[in-house]
Amino acid sequence: MVVSKYSASGNDFVIYHVFKKIDRSNIAKKLCDRFNGVGADGLIVLLPHEKYDFEWQFYNADGSVAEMCGNGSRAAAHYAYKNNLADKKMKFLTLAGVIEAEVEGNIVTSQLTPYKLIKDTFEEAGFEWKIYDTGVPHLVTITDIENFDKNLARKMREKYNANVNFAQMKDGNLYVRTYERGVEDETLACGTGMCASFLVARDKGLVASGVKLRPKSGEELEVMLKNDTLYFKGAVKNSFTAVLEEDERDFL
Ligand SMILES: N[C@H](CCC[C@H](N)C(=O)O)C(=O)O
Fold first, then answer.
1. Residue 26, annotated ligand binder?
2. N or C: which end of the chain has fewer CB within 10 A?
3. pLDDT tens digits, residue range 109-123?
4. Ligand 1 atom closest to Cα of 8?
5. ipTM reported for the complex surpasses 0.90
6. How many CA atoms lie within 13 A of 82 on its CB side?
7. Is the CB of 136 under 6 A from ligand 1?
8. What does pTM read for this prediction?
9. Cα(134)–Cα(3) distance, integer angstroms
């Protein structure tokens, strides 16, 4: 089975395309395992669709299904273009809705689905939080990112069933550290988390559309808000493509 490994600003994925839509939770856990598998934060499987360029299945590393993945959408768009499944500008279907993406070399821009404020400002554990859904739910606190506390993040993730972001405006960039649901650890980048952090910082008057984003990986991304729609842009890398000698029936 041919699979591609992608990194989108440090958030990494295994990607392949097939024809059948089946439950792939177990293959996701197997492929994403960083010791016995390829190793990744998530699995993305592209499927034909009669109306859109493709439909996708997205699984976190623990095999859980997520409605959307911002960085994954950029990697999937690059994969689709590179494998002649779509043109440079494409539309594909996720559980969060239709995503539009544009590929320009190794730079990919994704338009996210409409965001929703889930819970307005509240205090908990010594921090001020908001919860935005930018395709998946995100808790965000604006603080010194050195205050990132993995144990607290784990507790908040469990209590609110959401990803957890600590964000800070520093030297003109929005720095974001994210504890990701379904990876159950801090990742090197989280696209929907960076966009949720942008919204909270915007609510506080700290940022404007076009601000540069800096995830844990240090790679630079950009978020834009046009007509109240979120776009985010950054590089993706096809680290390698491999033929896996696994039993193909595991994948199909
Ligand atoms: N872990 C997230 C999905 C992936 C989001 C993230 N990787 C992104 O780039 O948006 C969740 O289960 O809600």
1. no
2. C
3. 999 999 999 999 999
4. 9
5. yes
6. 22
7. yes
8. 0.96
9. 28
Is 32 considered catalytic here?
A: no
> Sign of torsion, CA 45 113 136 153?
positive
Whether 191 has a binding-site annotation, put simply, is yes
Q: Give burial (CB, 10 Å; 0-12/13-18/19+) of 109.
A: buried
Asked if residues 96 and 79 have their Cβ atoms less than 8 Å apart, the reply is no
Instruction: For 133-164, write each residue's pLDDT tens digit.
Output: 999 999 999 999 999 999 999 999 999 999 99
Q: What is the DSSP letter of 244?
A: -
* Ligand 1 and 192: CB distance under 6 A: yes
Q: What CA–CA distance (Å, rounded) separates 112 from 73? A: 9
**CB of 139 shorter than 6 A to ligand 1:** no
Task: Point out the catalytic residue in the list 8, 38, 69, 112.
Answer: 69
- Which of 62, 3, 57, 66 is closest to 30 using CA atoms? 62
